[in-house]
Design brief:
Blueprint: E1 5-9, H1 16-24, E2 29-33, H2 36-40, H3 47-52, E3 56-59, E4 66-68, E5 81-84, E6 87-88, E7 93-94, H4 99-102, E8 108-111, H5 114-125, E9 130-133, H6 144-147, H7 149-159, E10 163-169, E11 182-187, H8 191-197, E12 198-199, H9 204-216, E13 220-228, H10 234-248, E14 256-261, E15 263-265, H11 266-275, E16 287-289, E17 292-294, H12 297-312, E18 320-322
Parallel strand pairs: 1-2, 1-3, 3-8, 5-9, 9-10, 10-11, 11-13, 13-14, 14-18
Antiparallel strand pairs: 4-5, 6-8, 7-12, 15-17, 16-17
Helix pairs in contact: 9-10, 10-12
The structure holds iron/sulfur cluster.
Length: 324
């Protein structure tokens, strides 16, 4: 991954991880800044253009680092469900990504004070077992070679039995461990969706092979058919995808499967439409319910039931989780 510029917050300089990242980006232009928000939260940024020339911001995260899961996220049957934000933004560029409505910038931020994340999780663990989705606002596995953040969460899981970590990805990563409390969640989309809306991600075949290898290694693997996108021939496309996935990966060996139709907070959708006036996904005439933009109720239900039905041909329905 090539970043055009690297911004480093003054107080992040002393962190060993900052130095490690800078060594790996040998040759990048480094600009010192006071606070990451001075760059990331600037007004009138051109987020689509920034995506073409992405900069990296190395910073220290104060305040909240671990958040309660939002209603649009799936808890996968877990009680104390949190997500962590140790990086913001993603090397990939999915047209439907809610981050486009959430952040004012497309530049990536990597936080280097991981020890504070450790303390935060340990604090939560005092109240009982905790489930953390560590890779929600980014793709930690895709960038692990540079940041080591996925390794940090794996290490957290290894050393804390009551912690369950999900690492979600659209990369075709090689999973070489089988830590019992780490779930590798591979998001799969039909080829048509990958080609049209998931720029820079791994091909769906490569993701299926990676998930299959992870299962062979004894890792816990989740498949995510989320978001399910309404493309013209969506029924055929999702049937082919699920048949292909099932022939590559023994579905009975999966930990579980998540299914969710596209949905986004109505507020994020408004921002996304403003920033991306030509986006087909953003400008679909969604139905707004309880502040969440989603497909019209009949279609939404049909899509979810159809995809669950296809998966149900290969594995028990009790393994399939949906967001609503
Ligand atoms: S991989 Fe996930 S986080 Fe990254 S751009 Fe796509 S939807 Fe967003």
């Amino acid at each position: 991954m090539r970043f055009t510029h690297v911004y480093v917050e003054e107080r992040a300089e002393e962190y060993p991880l900052t130095q490690k990242i800078l060594e790996k980006l040998n040759g990048a232009d480094v600009i010192k800044i006071r606070h990451y928000k001075d760059v990331f939260d600037r007004k009138r940024q051109n987020a689509p253009l920034q995506k073409e020339h992405q900069a990296l911001i190395i910073a220290v995260r104060d305040g909240s680092r671990i958040f309660k899961g939002a209603p649009v996220c799936q808890s996968m049957g877990q009680k104390n469900f949190y997500y962590a934000s140790s990086m913001m933004n993603c090397p990939f560029d999915c047209e439907y990504c809610y981050l486009k409505g959430m952040y004012p910038s497309s530049n990536m931020v990597v936080f280097v004070n991981l020890e504070d994340y450790r303390k935060d999780v340990e604090e939560k663990l005092k109240e009982g077992p905790v489930y953390v989705c560590a890779s929600y606002d980014t793709d930690l596995l895709a960038l692990n070679g540079l940041t080591g953040h996925a390794d940090f969460w794996r290490d957290m899981a290894r050393t804390h039995d009551d912690l369950l970590v999900e690492l979600r990805t659209k990369a075709a990563v090689d999973v070489t461990d089988n830590i019992s409390n780490v779930i590798y969640a591979f998001t799969l989309s039909p080829e048509e969706v990958v080609e049209r809306y998931e720029r820079h991600t791994a091909s769906v075949d490569a993701r299926i092979s990676a998930a299959s290898r992870a299962v062979e290694n004894g890792a816990k693997v989740r498949l995510c058919f989320d978001p399910v996108i309404r493309i013209p021939e969506w029924k055929d496309a999702y049937k082919k995808l699920i048949d292909d996935a099932a022939s590559g990966i023994g579905f009975d060996r999966l930990t579980d499967v998540s299914v969710g139709t596209f949905r986004i907070s109505a507020d994020y959708l408004t921002k996304m439409r403003k920033a991306y006036p030509d986006s087909e996904i953003a400008w679909y005439p969604y139905f707004i319910k309880d502040g969440i933009a989603q497909y019209e109720p009949g279609l939404d239900k049909d899509m979810q039931e159809y995809v669950c039905g296809l998966i149900g041909e290969y594995t028990g329905r009790e393994k399939i989780f949906t967001w609503n």
